[in-house]
Structure formats: C-alpha cells, structure tokens
Write a structure and sequence with these properties.
Elements (H helix, E strand, L loop, with lengths): L10 H10 L11 E3 L7 E7 L2 E7 L10 H11 L7 E5 L4 E5 L6 H7 L2 H20 L1 H6 L3 H4 L4 H19 L6 H19 L3 E4 L8 E3 L5 E3 L6 E4 L2 H8 L8 H17 L7 H28 L10 H15 L3 H10 L1
Antiparallel strand pairs: 1-2, 2-3, 3-5, 4-5, 6-9, 7-8
Helix pairs in contact: 4-10, 7-8, 7-11, 8-11, 9-11, 11-12, 12-13
Length: 341
C-alpha cells in the first residue's frame, strides 16, 4: 500500500458521505464505531434497509471487481458457505456494507458453553473446514484470487522470519548470536520447505474462534475470509484448535477432532488421508502456524502497544515445544523455547 493511495478523510466521515448518497437504505445519523481487532480496517454498525448492517471502511480505495474480500465472499457464497451477505460497496469511498451477524464470537460463546455444546460447536466448525476444502476446484473454476495465492515456501518462510524478528527483537529486546540465529534458521527453513511440498486445498487462512460468529439463530458463520489461499489440509484445523489458547490442549481431544475432520472430508467427496500421515502434518503445521501467531502477538505487543495479545505468547510457544517434541525434531527451536519460558 502506497502512502499516496491512503485516504486523508477519516473513515467515519467517508462512511457518512456514503450513507448520504443512499438515503432510502440507510440513516447516516446513527453510526456506532466497533472496536477492530489487529486490523487497518474500521468497522461500524449502521442502520440499513430497516435493520442493522456492518460497514467495513478501508484505509484506501479499491476496485470491487478485484477486491480480495469481495472476491472470496463471492466464492464462499457460491459454495454455500455461511459468510455474511454483502449488501453494497463503493470502492472510491473504501466502503463495504454487509450483513450484521451480531456480537457473539464463537470464542466468547465457548466460555459459557457446556461440554456438550462445546463439542457441537467444534464439530460444526470442523465441518465447515471440510466444506471450505470441498470448494477447492470451484475456486479455480471461478478464477478466485484464493486459487492464485498459496502457502508456498516463500510465504511460509516469511512468516517464520516475522516470528524471529518480532518475538526476539520487538517483544524481548534480544539479539540472537550469529550461531543461534543460523542454527534456528536451518530448522525453520526445513519446516517451510516440507509444508510447502504438501498437497494444497482451499484454506480460510485465519480460521480461529474469533473469526467465527454465532448468529441470532445459533448458526456458526464465517468472517474475515479475505486472505483465503491454497495450503495444507491441516492448516485451518490447526488454527481452530490451537490458536489463541491460554493452556496446552488435551492431546486426546485434539486427536479425536483430527479423526472427525478426516471423516468429514471423506463425506464431502474429498480424498482419504491416512490418520498417521495427517498427524505428522498436523504437528509440523502446528509448529509453523503457532510460531507465526507468536510473531503476530509479539508485533501487536511490542510495536503496536496492544498488550492484550501478550498473554497468548508463552502458551503458544509451549504448544510449539510440545509439537516439536512429539515429532522428535527441531532441537535448537525446542532449546530456545525452553530457555525463554
């Protein structure tokens, strides 16, 4: 994003002007700002067509025909995936208006759910991953941007480099010795190389319980899907089960959910994956995905000053250590984690 393309007019003012141009559908006097997550976008709840809607206001103009969120929304809707309906957009104003799914993130719902309810929600979320993967061919047929992006070796290695920079430097204020850095980079390069060679399917890319909503009818809905791309079959499942945890997961429960996921894939006509082979990929993916998450948490904490993310850093590193130990690999990574937590 070039600085020259960024809007100078505040997001709320641009949204008011957008609503002024749609007086039969919206009321520009009742706009409520919603707190964004780790995002450059701003979100507002607005009245729209006699009910409420969510307006996402971007920091720069866009072409609706090629915008990632709109592109992937079209793909997911065509595949009958439960994404918010898009009501309208204006690329020149940087505005997208979409269905209001309410305020109940699955993460929050799970905090008060019974064990039975939690299992039901997790099973539905796991089913949705299989349904996303079943749309892999459709993404190619529609020439979606998601089919043209992938977790290739360069992307995976970049994310691991982001971890190196922001966990050690931004968060800890620490500079690794040349020998430590070299030893660690060899292992991280192996992780990126091996995962990039795995068969690829369509992935949401940020599939955790804060990006799943439970709407007024109790239906689990998918949001923040604009970064969808091709990647390993385990990617979204690792995100769902291991992202933003404050304690180590139950290994027995994770195994049960892995097997459930493999069954759901087969039910949707996807190729059968050997459970032992998938367990190996899942653990390797857990190392990469959790290190990537630690990099994000460290950046948000050390650079952006959003300290709410700090609490996830050590538990996520413990998951990395647990996964690497289960694989009986990556001794340098395991040593450096143990020394710091």
């Amino acid at each position: 994003m070039s600085a020259s393309t960024l809007f100078t007019t505040p997001a709320k003012d641009r949204l008011r002007e957008f609503l002024r141009l749609h007086p039969t559908e919206a009321d520009s006097l009742a706009i409520r700002h919603l707190t964004p997550d780790a995002s450059t976008r701003e979100y507002f709840r607005i009245p729209w067509r006699g009910k409420s809607a969510i307006a996402c206001v971007y920091p720069e103009p866009f072409d609706p025909a090629f915008h990632p969120y709109l592109d992937v929304s079209r793909l997911f809707a065509a595949a009958d995936l439960p994404v918010p309906q898009v009501y309208g957009s204006d690329g020149n104003a940087g505005v997208i208006v979409q269905e209001d799914l309410g305020d109940h993130q699955l993460r929050e719902v799970l905090q008060t759910a019974t064990d039975e309810q939690s299992d039901q929600y997790h099973e539905r979320a796991i089913q949705l991953i299989a349904e996303i993967q079943a749309a892999t061919q459709r993404s190619t047929d529609m020439n979606s941007i998601a089919a043209r992006l992938a977790f290739d070796e360069a992307k995976l290695a970049w994310e691991l480099g982001f971890f190196l920079e922001h966990y050690f430097v931004s968060h800890r204020g620490e500079k690794l010795s040349h020998g430590e850095a070299a030893e660690l980079k060899v292992e991280l390069n192996d992780i990126a190389s091996e995962l990039a060679a795995r068969p690829r399917v369509l992935c949401h890319r940020d599939y955790h319980t804060s990006n799943l909503m439970v709407d007024a009818a109790g239906v689990v809905r998918i949001i923040d899907h604009q970064d969808a791309r091709m990647g390993p079959a385990s990617y979204d499942l690792v995100s769902l089960l291991l992202d933003r945890r404050l304690s180590l997961p139950s290994l027995a429960q994770v195994r049960a959910y892995r097997l459930l996921f493999l069954d759901h894939r087969v039910e949707r006509g996807l190729s059968r994956i050997d459970p032992d082979e998938f367990a190996l990929e899942f653990r390797l993916m857990a190392v990469q995905r959790c290190l990537k998450a630690v990099g994000t948490f460290s950046y948000q904490t050390g650079v952006m000053g959003r300290t709410d993310y700090e609490r996830f850093i050590n538990p996520t590193l413990q998951i990395v250590g647990q996964s690497a130990e289960w694989l009986e690999r990556f001794p340098a990574l395991r040593r450096m984690i143990n020394e710091r937590i």
